[in-house]
Amino acid sequence: MSKLLARLQDASRSGVYRAPRSDAVLDALRGSDFDVARIDLSGVSDKAALLARLAEALAFPRWFGGNWDALEDCLTDLGWRAHARHVLLIENFEALRARQPDDFGVLLDVLASSAEYWHERERPFFTVLVDPVRTLALPDLYRSRAP
Q1: 3-130 belongs to CATH 3.30.370.10
Q2: What is the value of pTM for the model shown?
């Protein structure tokens, strides 16, 4: 088992992280019992498009309300997903972050709150933002410490 997979299996480390590439994360999770949702935010530049993209990528139920509270409700349920361990792999977030920094900040808060919810239930839940140039002030997935 790789060190990265061991880290991702540790629910106490659930949270929001950055990684320079998606391939290492995907390789570590290959063949595991994790539900991996790869979310490409290319072309997403506002809240409505962001919530729609997340709803599509995670196959949210029809009751998803398209707002921050509904996003958190869905992320702290996930009963329709096949597995009990989750990794959200978010790529190409730069345009959203540049155009809507407040919404991007709220997204990070909702993701962190959802990770805390699952941590309290001893179930791994990780969000990994692919950040090749290390622009985010988030812990590095490989070191689990702030930059």
Answers
A1: yes
A2: 0.93
